[in-house]
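Ticket #4471: structure output looks truncated?

Reporter: J.K.
Steps to reproduce: submitted the chain below (281 residues) through the standard prediction queue, then opened the result file.
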Amino acid sequence: MKNMNEQRRRKHWIAVAICLAYIVLMYATLPTSPTPSKKTSKIEQSASPEQSSPESFVLNQHTETEQTAASDASAIEIDMDNIHVNGLAAAMDMGRKYPVPAECVYAVWEEADIISYYGNNLVPPYLPAGLTASPRNAVQNVVLSMAGDVWEDTVRLDFYQDYHADGSAKSADNLYIPKGFYLNASKIGLLYDFSCINSGNAVSISYLNETTVSIGGAMLEHGPYDPDTHEPSGHYEQYVAQFTLNGIDYEIVTSRLELEEAVRIVASIIYNESNININNS
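Returned output as attached by the reporter:
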């Protein structure tokens, strides 16, 4: 009986040993995933978020959408119901006493001189599409006293579609009238300016960011003129806006620009912002 029990125990342990050996052999023969090489790791590390993670690409798109919305939200809103246009008279000499040549110095200011005197380069943050600065904007003629005091500081900057070789504006089409605007600026009073008037000489004022703005407008003729009747080929819009900001007198004179564009130019200077929305009721 004892021998039979011993035989049974021996057979049991032999069976267990065989099972264990089989399990070990099975795991030993299974295919294993290779460890990534250093080269593969570098490639993975250098991949952009868009390449390595679709979720991050969606997140980036969402962020750009939020930035666009924030940009639109930051735009300056101008209600055209608050913009008043007066009649427009011709440019006038403001009656300033002209300096005696022997008692003054005629000087040239470049952009650095303009910035030093005015605090900025006077270029409006907003320019209508297609308009560029004239090459002659780079230098301005001023008059100084012998002691260096500023006697004439009016700066004129041109922004039109096209220019002649000397930097003066020229028409880019057959209307003979350049499309664009010029800006006059002075800290001691403009040498020449337009008069914005209406019936009774009472000027209707517009307000932009608490700055008072006088705006005048007129429809002017343009050629070519009929040789027999002398009638013009048509008419174009001209607007003039005058205001004082930070001690500087500004005058914007447009040619063939819509009123909304003139307002955008003025508002961009007053708000120091190029993103201007116009609301028409």
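Triage note (M.O.): checked the attachment and the full token line is present. Helices lie at 2-29, 38-46, 49-52, 54-73, 111-118, 259-271.
Status: closed, working as intended.
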